[in-house]
Sequence to fold (244 residues):
Amino acid sequence: MRAFAAHTDFFSLFVDGFFQGSLNNPDIQLVGVAEPDQQLSLNYANRYGVDSKLLFPSLEQLLQATHAQAVLVYTNTYDHRSVVEVCARYRVHVMMEKPLAVSLADAHAIQKSAAQSGIHVLVNYETTWYRSNRAAYDLARENKLGELRKIVVLDGHKGPKETNVPPEFLAWLTDPKLNGGGALFDFGCYGADLATWLMEGHRPDTVTAITQHIKPDVYQHVDDEATVILTYPRTQVIIQASWN
Fold:
């Protein structure tokens, strides 16, 4: 890939990992970073030696000024739709952080934009990279586990505030509009993704969800604990998402 751009509104969350692993990678050329908080982007540009000329206040300006072939998206989840729609106009491929969207309407809009422009839209589910998940999938496909009857997926940590995520990230992660929910969206999406993969893309017959505010003093507006049960004709999936 010769040209690469990043669009983010929580710049500080991704730079440590991305910049450390990619700035000196000969297969990648960073052509720009779109970040509305210019002081924040300058702080990290100085920290990692990124030329300030690569910093743009908006994605539109970045794409107009560069020849990016792909964009990595680290915005709040609510903005995923608008980012894909902008990238689609420039026919630039997109990889975003999970989850895909805050609503079915936004997911359909993303699908439509991608199809009409011919771009790829990928969601970077961290669990996709786990060797253990790939091994479990292969065992299931090779019928070495027997028929799948129950799948239990538990993902979580003690909470974003408790794990000291950057304040600009915490602000939207705990906003029901910008994130879609709390632990349910943050960690429940992994189970939905894995279940869809293990069940060969089949849709569940029923979906039941329970969310709780176990720490309402910390997370006033979004859930911090969630359990989702998916039923299939011969299989049950339990998804446990937790900030506790």
Notes: Residues 111 and 159 are 31 Å apart (CA to CA). The chain has ten helices and ten strands. Strands lie at 4-8, 30-34, 55-56, 70-74, 93-97, 121-124, 150-156, 206-212, 225-231, 236-242. The chain has a mean pLDDT of 91.
